[in-house]
Amino acid sequence: AVVSTQSGHYGRGTERFCVVKESFLLYYDKSEKKHYESKKMFNIHPKGVIPLANCHIEKWDDTGKPGFKITHASFKTVTQTDGPVGNLVMAARSADERDNWIKILQECSKITWNNAQLGAAQIKQLEENTNRINKEKTEYIEKLNKEAEALKHETGKKEELEKLSKKLEEERAAMENVANQFKEEKEMTAQELLDAMEAMKKLDEERTNLDTASKELEQNLKRVGEEKAKQEDLVKKEQAEKEKLAATSNELKSHLMTVEEESKKLVAEKQKTEQ
Questions:
Q1: How confident is the model over 18-45, as a mean pLDDT?
Q2: How many Å apart are CA 168 and CA 89, to the nearest integer?
Q3: Which candidate among 84, 135, 147, 173 keeps its CA 20 to 30 Å from the CA of 242?
Q4: DSSP character for 65?
């Protein structure tokens, strides 16, 4: 891409090799492109770094080439001390390439500290909802055990009820094991906002299904066997959702850690460059 800054007129510009990393645009000498393509790694020492957070990116063809303009309130030209903000104008080799750059940079400009804080708050809310649902499951299992004991005294079918009680105890132990595993995984999780919201929705649906199953059991004790099978299916579904939740949480945490590390490196590089 050819880069030129606004200073009353547009100069010829300089061809640069550019890389987008999170919410930053890194630019290098054009020779860096060969190194990037051969090593599949970007150089952590660019010629310059442009923060994209809250920038305005729009199509800009006034230079006679398919280009775009990046504007932010903090941008200033070399000689500017007040007045309108400065612009960074870039030109691509084709209109398609220009449109692709605009799309990517507009997405990157949405990555801000406020958005990151919002994601953390919703992750915390997800953890609180998960704890609440686990508590409801424990109470439901205890309720099933009490009803099974009552059924044992009422029907006198000792052998059948003992098997049922044993099965319920195994299910309770399995649920406790799953809950303990999820608690350990939860300490390492940080996940993307959309996945977290979807997981929360599914957990609420599961709680509704458990409540419905409890009411049906109270209405008809003869359907205990059917309710037991339904609980087994719900446990499997919950395990799958928890595994999915843990995977996406680990991915977001890794993503956030990468952003933080890159931000620290870029700040250090900026300070070094200023010195």
A1: 86
A2: 68
A3: 147
A4: S
